[in-house]
Structure formats: C-alpha cells, structure tokens
From TrEMBL:
Highest taxon, organism lineage: Bacteria
GO molecular function: DNA-binding transcription factor activity
Name listed for the protein in its UniProt record: Transcriptional regulator
Source organism (scientific name): Peptoniphilus porci
Family matches, as InterPro entries: CBS_dom, CBS_dom_sf, CBS_domain-containing, DeoR_HTH, HTH_11, UCP026546_HTH-CBS, WH-like_DNA-bd_sf, WH_DNA-bd_sf
Amino acid sequence: MKFSDRQSEIIEIVRNKGPITGDEIAEKLGLSRATIRSDLSVLTMINILGARPKFGYFYTGKSILSQLYDDLKKLKLKDYMSLPFSCDQKTSIYDVVVDLFMEDLSSMFITEGGYLTGIVSRKDLIRFMIGDADIKKTPISVIMTRMPNVFYVNENDSVYEAASLIVEKGIDSLPVVEVKSNNNLEVVGRFTKTNVTRLFVDVCDGEII
C-alpha cells in the first residue's frame, strides 16, 4: 500500500515519539486534529498504528502484509486439505496409472492394511514404463518410495508448514495423516500445489481471512 506524504509523516512521528496523542501529532504537523482524523483512522484500521484511550497512538511495527502473514499461519490443514486417494501396495502398476489419470492426480499414496507405506508419482511410473516389465502383473510396491522416506503432515499442522515443505522438498503433494496405535499412519487427506494455488486465489478474492 502506498501512503500519502502526510500519512508517512504521521507514521514516523508515532514511531519516534509514541505513545502520542492525536492533538500532539496534529501540533507537530502544524495542522488541526480534524484534518488528520481520516489519516489516523486509516492507519489504525490497517494496523500500522495502534490506539488506546488516555494512552494515545503507538507504532505496531506491522503492515497489512505482516498481518496477512500472521493470519495465514493460523490456517489449519484440516480445513483446506483435499480428499485422499490411495491404493494397496499389491495393486498393479497398470491400475495405478489408470487411477492417476482418471482422477488427474500427480501422485498416489500407497497403503498396507489401511496405513501409509509409500508414495508413487507420475515420474516414477513413466520411468518404469520405459522398460519391458509387465505393468499389469508388477505390484506398485516395486517402484514406490517407501516409508520412512515419505514426507507427510498432520491435519492440525498449518497450511504454511505444508506449503513450505512442498517448496523445500520440490514435491507435488503431501499425505495428511492421523497417527494411530503403534505409530501407524492413516491417510485422512492430501495437500498439493493445487491446494496452495486455490488458497492464494481465495485470499485475494477476500473469501479467506
């Protein structure tokens, strides 16, 4: 946000002299309190300045972006994750390929007994299909990335943590899990680059925060 010259001057006064009353700010500017009332209202509304009765205005050190950042870090995955897609590790590579393209997924979570054991991506499948193996008879367990080499998140983690992990590891999606007995991981959702993009659009459209 671009501030007017007067607003910028008010911010500097409060930053250096706060807490300070509106009358004192106006006096330093050589203006009336009524003249700067709208400026003070805008600056407090967007949380650049704080105000307390009988205390005056003070500098918060925050901007709109920093406030947005704080709010985004509070969003939980359980409210923004997608439905999970998984298959048993005995499923053939052929069937996994069909499911991936039918659902337009970038990866498939692999389970055994309902618990997470691995993950396979489109790249893994394409790389394997270049060879001569029979994809209708070869189980997906042959080429999947196995635990504990699978990155995952908990549904109570923040969307910020999940998005950071996606960027850091250069992956397309993360299984969202719930820890069961014996530390078994039940897949309860998925969080992907698409989820991050949708979240960004919703924030810009004002539908979130």
